[in-house]
Specification:
With 458 residues, the chain is of the alpha+beta class. β5 and β6 form a beta hairpin. α8 packs across α9 and α10 packs across α12. The protein is elongated, with a radius of gyration of 23 Å. The structure holds zinc ion.
Length: 458
């Protein structure tokens, strides 16, 4: 069944750009004149890529069948190595180097073991070529937890297909994008074509918590003239994204017997006060957003993602750790946001000192990600829009997202212009996550046309 909002049907119906898998904001297309006819070579490429549909779906299912939550990414990387070898490429491991990452100013802080984690990169670079621009096609192998599993009607780590949709954790975010990248490369290779400048296929770890996997590939020396992250924004190119910061607030109360709770200080109740104090910071940040985020009703979300406290119903809990995620606008340094958070926490203590047995700690682990924007006039945006428009018949939406992606890592750390472009999917991070399979093939086809324009093929 074709979803009404899907771009494929948009061609026939003249509907507006689709609802996106993530919160996405359609913006005017800067270069509608980029749309041109498909050349004969384009048609040949699109057909060769479509001929690999079954393989793409089969690889996607293999990927979704692996639980690649944080710490378990290696099983999925095994599938990626296999698939790259099936294409005749030679995948190389780029292991995470904890010392190098801890020392890098753009790394997100982490306190878990990353030593056995590996990114996978395959380089497709025929010798003695010139004239093209190099390209990174990137996706992340890690997925978020499917909990609570009881809400899924089938096993989240067993892919299943129904009516053109493939379901499972990671089907949308973003194993479908990895499958599309592989499908694009396969089609071109079947035609005996190869790029005139190096093309790198990357499958990275830790996009969902730090971005340090993508950073590690840059530290290993993989650079290019552009990067496309195949995140499932469907029928849209993402040119702007917010920054994201993770932090924990550790609140110490005073444990005691529930029957004499007058002397004890309940850390869970204090944490509720802290949550509402931080909600006012969220409200302040949403009060006058800069463009394009001024078109969103609520661009900055504070999410209470975790709360750990207490172990006995008759004991007043003495500690409560709350894990938060908050966003920033492009251009706002992470450190400025940290300062504002710490001020809110200090003010909350000053207002009610009896609710704390000692000053709360703010601990930073995970995302310390700045926002990122690429001009809508950039050659990469024009060129990808043109490939899209040739294939789909109308230009893509250019969108700003209220989430973060690895595009910022390439952009900020290496000055590599980066956008997101990928299949149409739904329920990322949710129950019943799914991707619309025809959009995986179309993403691969648009990528194939773009590679022809950007890298050159011969
Ligand atoms: Zn993602």
């Amino acid at each position: 069944m074709t979803p009404a909002a899907y771009a494929g049907s948009q061609l026939a119906t003249g509907l507006e750009p689709p609802e996106l898998a993530y919160a996405g904001l359609p913006m005017p297309v800067a270069h509608p004149e980029a749309a041109k006819e498909m050349a004969a070579e384009d048609t040949e490429i699109a057909e060769a890529i479509a001929a690999g549909t079954e393989w793409m779906i089969e690889v996607l299912a293999r990927l979704v069948d692996k639980d690649t939550t944080l710490g378990n990414e290696e099983s999925g990387q095994g599938v990626m190595r296999e698939a790259l070898r099936e294409l005749g490429l030679d995948p190389v491991d780029v292991p995470m180097d904890p010392e190098a990452l801890h020392a890098h100013p753009a790394a997100s802080p982490f306190d878990w073991d990353v030593r056995n984690k590996r990114n996978v990169v395959a380089t497709w670079a025929p010798p003695d070529r010139d004239g093209g621009l190099s390209l990174i096609l990137n996706g992340h192998i890690d997925v978020v937890s499917p909990e609570p599993r009881s809400q899924w009607i089938s096993d989240p780590f067993t892919a299943h297909v129904a009516e053109d949709w493939l379901y499972g954790r990671g089907a949308a975010d973003m194993k479908c994008g990895l499958a599309a990248i592989l499908g694009a490369v396969k089609g071109l290779r079947e035609l005996g074509l190869s790029p005139n400048a190096p093309l790198y296929v990357e499958s990275v770890v830790e996009e969902e918590c730090t971005g340090n996997g993508a950073l590690q590939t840059l530290l290993a020396g993989y650079r290019a003239d552009a990067a496309i992250i195949a995140e499932p924004f469907g029928a849209a190119i993402t040119t702007s994204q917010v920054g994201v910061l993770w932090f924990d607030v550790v609140i110490e109360g005073l444990p005691g017997h529930a029957a004499e709770s007058g002397h004890a200080v309940n850390a869970i109740e204090t944490s509720l006060t802290m949550i509402s104090a931080l909600r006012s910071l969220e409200a302040e940040l949403n009060a006058s957003p800069p463009p394009p985020y001024d078109q969103y009703p609520h661009p900055i979300s504070l999410n209470i993602g975790q709360i750990h406290a207490g172990d006995w119903n008759s004991t007043v809990p003495g500690e409560c750790v709350t894990g938060y995620r908050i966003a920033t606008y492009p251009g706002m340094p992470v450190q400025a946001l940290r300062t504002r958070i710490e001020r809110v926490v200090a003010d909350a203590v000053a207002e009610k000192p009896e609710a704390f047995s000692r000053p709360p700690q703010v601990v930073y682990r995970g995302f310390a990600a700045e926002g990122y924007e690429l001009s809508q006039d950039h050659l990469l945006v024009n060129s990808l829009s043109s490939a899209y428009a040739r294939h789909m018949g109308s230009p893509p939406a250019l969108v700003a997202t209220t989430g973060t992606t690895d595009a910022r890592v390439f952009g900020h750390v290496a000055g590599i212009p980066s956008v997101c472009f990928g299949p149409y999917a739904e329920s990322a991070h949710g129950v019943g996550e799914r991707v619309y399979l025809p959009s995986v093939v179309q993403t691969a086809q648009v990528m194939g046309l773009f590679i022809r324009d950007w890298c050159g093929l011969s």
